[in-house]
Design goal:
This protein has six helices and 45 strands. With about 575 residues, it is mainly beta. Bound molecules: zinc ion (ZN).
């Protein structure tokens, strides 16, 4: 019997695969009349508009390219190439096409630009001896027609797998518009899922985190909740599912009702470009830091005037439990297919006195206020926008774990508490540190690591920190190491004409990079600490000399020649 059952299961799996294949073929691509699809493989999303990322929202759609690179990418409408970018991070290789209806389409993480554009870019790289470029073009330079091949997809820049990142922007304001509203109608018959529901004390959201968490709160959550807070607000971790798609996507509309009055709603129709700082107003950073899961706030904060997404505020999502009565709360998630999921429950305030007791720490830093604090040889300069709520800031000092450290490590608050604007930090240098060469700050926490070159003034070293964590001044005297793969000995060209370099550094951060072949500068591509260069066709055979110069943040330079 088990064998037979196995066969039946296999048959059903096969059948559903066939059915979903036909659905896929019949229903995709789903572009709105007048627009072309940017890829011929149909529009399957691995991420949608407005999804939360560390420190920002996802400004477009991630369109799958069947796990492959070098898929043809096409212009969605007539227009002209108004800008291109080449970068080791962010969008990687990116094309901006401006259309005549106040819209600009953006195609990111590309491998290649179409030929005439590619030639112009390589000319500019050679002229400036810079691989990274950010170029703007006049209207008549590179005209583009709907459906024209503009490049090949890839995985360049900050991308964790082959895909096309596509954006649809308002040309005048630069705001990103939800492409699913204007370009692509995708089938979605599956409701969003609310995975976790969070209740916060509205006075200490960032510093304390949720005071109550409900897992999988589907439908009518039967229990009545009692909390020790007089003003509360909510957050959810919610995902949207789509037909024929195994990816967890973001939700489109989130609404909160207090006794059937709508007190908060966020709708992901467009996102302004200045969203990056304010995303901490909208995301439970603490939950992400601790659990790796994004939870979205269902309330607006005071500094939220430059709201990143369309938020309709009434009481800004805060429920006043001061009346000691039951409040009936409904939280609703809706997707673009109109499918809705609701969670309903009753909540009231219990004893508030317990919270105001003597165990509560006195706060010494206030949200929205500038402040300067000293601790030993360190000075911390908080900006108006640095903190989201009041905290008790007491740095501790410990021995550094870096062998080349020249300071103690200062441990700054709780790294799960987000910073808006960077905090300026300075360290007094003692006389032994009169030689400032090769000094760098290393800042780290569980999710963050960076090496920062200080600015020196008088006898102090300055830097700006975007997160709380552990900060140490290090004297780095170790040069980066260049590893070369595929360059056959005696200067023969490498296999596939591809030169692959891996640079490693004791502090893991590579600074400047340059390479020449036979004395001529060549534009190596870069992604993190990987560098590659494809030798053009027609390059003469025989012996060649590759010279690579690379430095780390501290300025240690390595110069290697390969014959
Ligand atoms: Zn993307």
């Amino acid at each position: 019997l088990p064998v037979k059952r196995k066969h039946i299961v296999r048959f059903i799996v096969l059948l559903s695969a066939i059915i979903s294949f036909f659905f896929f073929v019949i229903h995709e691509p789903a572009t709105v009349a007048g627009y072309a699809s940017p890829v011929d493989t149909g529009i399957q999303l691995s991420a949608n508009f407005g999804e939360i990322r560390p420190g920002h929202r996802h400004m477009g759609l991630d369109i799958r390219t069947n796990g492959r690179e070098n898929v043809e990418v096409k212009a969605v409408a007539d227009g002209y190439v108004s800008r291109i970018g080449i970068s080791a991070s962010g969008y990687g290789n990116v094309i901006y096409i401006t259309h005549n209806n106040n819209r600009t389409s953006v195609y990111a993480h590309l491998n290649e630009f179409y030929s005439t554009l590619g030639v112009a870019i390589r000319d500019q790289q050679q002229k400036t001896k810079q691989w990274e470029q950010d170029l703007v073009f006049a209207k008549d330079r590179f005209p583009v027609t709907k459906g024209m091949l503009i490049g090949l997809s890839g995985n360049t820049g900050h991308s964790e797998g082959p895909h096309l990142h596509f954006e649809w922007r308002d040309t005048r304001t630069g705001a990103s518009v939800n492409p699913q509203k204007e370009l692509f109608r995708l089938e979605d018959g599956i409701a969003p899922v609310i995975e976790e529901l969070f209740v916060y004390d509205a006075t200490s959201v960032c510093s304390k985190g949720a005071i109550t968490t409900i897992n999988s709160p589907a439908g009518n959550y039967g229990k009545q909740l009692i909390v020790n807070a007089s003003k509360i607000c909510f957050g959810v971790s919610a995902v949207d599912k789509m037909n024929n798609n195994q990816f967890n996507l973001g939700t489109y509309r989130l609404t909160v009702f207090d006794n059937n009055v709508r007190i908060f709603e966020s709708v992901k129709d467009s996102i302004s470009q200045d969203h990056i700082v304010s995303v901490h107003n909208e995301v439970d950073y603490r939950h992400w830091y601790r659990k790796g899961v994004f939870a979205e706030y269902l309330f607006s904060r005071d500094r939220d005037s430059e709201a990143t997404i369309n938020r309709r505020k009434n009481k800004q999502g805060v429920v006043d439990l001061g009346d000691k009565k039951n409040h009936h709360i409904i939280i609703r998630a809706v997707d673009l297919g109109g499918n809705a999921t609701e969670v309903a429950f009753d909540i009231r305030s219990g004893s508030i006195a317990a919270q105001a007791g003597p165990t509560r720490k006195v706060t010494n830093l206030r949200a929205g206020k500038k402040a300067v604090l000293r601790s030993g040889n360190w000075v911390f300069d908080f900006m108006i926008g640095s903190l989201f709520d009041d905290i008790s800031f007491e740095p501790t000092h410990s021995r550094s774990r870096y062998p080349s450290s020249v300071s103690e490590t200062v441990n700054l608050h709780d790294p799960a508490v987000p910073l808006g604007d960077s905090v300026k930090v300075s360290l007094k240098l003692d006389d032994a540190l009169r030689n400032k060469a090769q000094l760098v700050f290393v800042l780290s926490n569980d999710v963050f690591y960076d090496v920062i070159r200080p600015v020196f003034s008088g006898n102090r070293a300055f830097c700006e920190i975007p997160v709380f964590g552990h900060l140490t001044l290090v004297r780095d005297t170790v040069r980066p190491v260049v590893g070369l793969a595929g360059w056959r000995n005696k200067g023969k060209l490498p296999q596939g004409n591809l030169v692959n370099l891996t640079i490693s550094d004791n502090l893991k951060k590579v600074g400047e990079f340059a390479a020449t072949i036979d004395g001529v500068w060549v534009p190596f591509n870069r992604k993190e600490n990987r560098f590659w260069y494809s030798i053009p066709a027609g390059f003469p055979k025989g012996s060649h000399k590759l010279v690579v110069s690379v430095s780390d943040v501290a300025g240690n330079l390595t110069r290697n020649s390969f014959l």
